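Section handout, structural biology tutorial.
Before the tutorial, make sure you can parse a SMILES string by hand: atoms, branches in parentheses, ring closures as digits. In the record below the ligand is S-adenosylmethionine, and the chain has 271 residues. In the tutorial you will relate the predicted structure tokens back to the input. Do not try to memorize them.
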Amino acid sequence: MAKEFVFTRDDFKEIQKVVAASSGINLGDHKFEMVYGRIARRLRATGLRTVKDYLSLIENNNLENIQFINAITTNLTYFFRENHHFEFLRKTVIPELVSKHTNDKRVRIWSAGCSTGEEPYSIALTLDEFLRKYATWDTKILATDLDTQVLEKARVGLYNDERVQSLSGDVKKNLFEMTKNGFRVKDRHRKTIFFKQLNLMHSWPMKGKFDVIFCRNVLIYFERSVQQALIDKFRQVLQPKGLLILGHSESIGAQAQHFEPLGKTIFRRKV
Ligand SMILES: C[S@@+](CC[C@H](N)C(=O)[O-])C[C@H]1O[C@@H](n2cnc3c(N)ncnc32)[C@H](O)[C@@H]1O
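Predicted structure of the complex:
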């Protein structure tokens, strides 16, 4: 069937360049059709007919540039994805945090590339007991994403049946309250999480260091050199012996010299 818009290999190459420069995302050649579908949506929304016109629009129009990046990102996520990471958090990390922070009582966890919020909310629920027991401690979960649309969904914390159907009754009961619009994350979990828009390619404004950084299924979209540079930056914002948790198909590469592998894509900063 003929395409609604002309989309040439050169158009695709231009998009690959713009996306890599602004977000670090490396759109492989096999993503041609996927990118066409997503750009076609933006062409329809803006009333433009060609990719060339669209690319000049986003150069000058910040709002459309945001829409463009939102359209390109892949946001697949789900609650307790790679559950062994949350088991590790519960069994190993929390007891360590308790002994490490008895004096300063300050705990920081970062979900970098949090998408629609399932990851930081899974972290919050895993910390629930700890948060109740050490309620006076300064414990915060920072959750960031480049994509403003998913971040807004994350902030609202409202999920439909399909998003929660695989969760156990206990998890559902503890994490959500039922509303007429769906499953809403309870206030006590939402208030420990600070959602912020952050492009990992830009400078990072946060000052304090993190005990644990989850950056799962994000690096996979970047060039190898970008992945390595980011892992190095993560190391610099980790506490000594802090933990970096990557997605199942991501690796630490040459940065391995600075981390101790703990298995299942969990890495401990050496010093
Ligand atoms: C596939 S989702 C992973 C979500 C979650 N971490 C998980 O594992 O289920 C990848 C997320 O990374 C975000 N992302 C992509 N490039 C980014 C960048 N340069 N800075 C920040 N976030 C980015 C996307 O918007 C998307 O929400």
